[in-house]
Amino acid sequence: MATELPVIVTSDLETATSGSETATPRDSSRAAIPEPTVRVNGLTRTFGERRVLDGVDLEIRRGEFVALLGRSGSGKSTLLRVLAGLDPGAKGEVEVEGTVAVAFQEPRLVPWKRILANVALGLQAPDPRAAALAALEEVGLGELHGAWPLTLSGGEAQRASLARALVREPDLLLLDEPFSALDALTRITIHRLVLDLWGRHGPGILLVTHDVDEAMLLADRVLVLDRGVIAHESRVDLPRPRHRDHRDLIALRSTLLTRLGVTLEGTT
Length: 268
Ligand SMILES: Nc1ncnc2c1ncn2[C@@H]1O[C@H](COP(=O)(O)OP(=O)(O)OP(=O)(O)O)[C@@H](O)[C@H]1O
Prior knowledge:
alpha/beta; ABC_transporter_ATP-bind; translocase; transport; ATP hydrolysis activity
């Protein structure tokens, strides 16, 4: 009889030799493990006296969806900026293979260009406008291609931002809290859209978020950045779409909140 393997594997990486509950992912029969798109070793970043990143080691495999949690000011955006090639002041080994695209918390659309022109901006493609239109249709904004950015709702602007990132067919998509300003219903819709786009385009994704549920519902692995290092990792091997009330996710939520320093006593 086959032994059931755990669907969630949790490791405190500061005590990696003893902290790992198990090291066997459920789908251990998975064929070849894809090569890393991101390989980071001993990454440090200091601002003045403050060492924000203090020897970060990180790998993201091709097509893997990774979420990064951490307290405010723990250095999540700093790490993402390094991976995006936007921070020349960092030290350590950083290898990122292929094309990188970033979507930020605020959609950063150019206000004096229409949506189609925003998505096509700087695009190296035989027909940038046709590619941009196809990307807008993919995120459900085809009809709004002629609109001005300031006339879009928050959710629509965020979809446009995703279209602009994905039209570049990135190997690595960096998402810096792109859903945090959206209302709860729009956020659920965009989560589905992101999973759908991820399934179709297959980039590696690093999602920086404050939202533990968002991380658990979307990612293959959830990391916690603490005191300048990746201090915790949980591998979530549950099929999607996931339900937040799943027994294993309830346990994981509690583990992650504790790891983030949130006290659960007195909460319901
Ligand atoms: N260019 C900079 N100059 C000086 N300090 C900086 C700079 N960029 C970031 N920092 C500092 O580094 C620390 C980490 O910032 P970062 O934005 O990476 O944190 P974060 O985890 O993304 O926070 P939050 O969740 O609040 O967005 C903060 O204390 C911030 O003030």
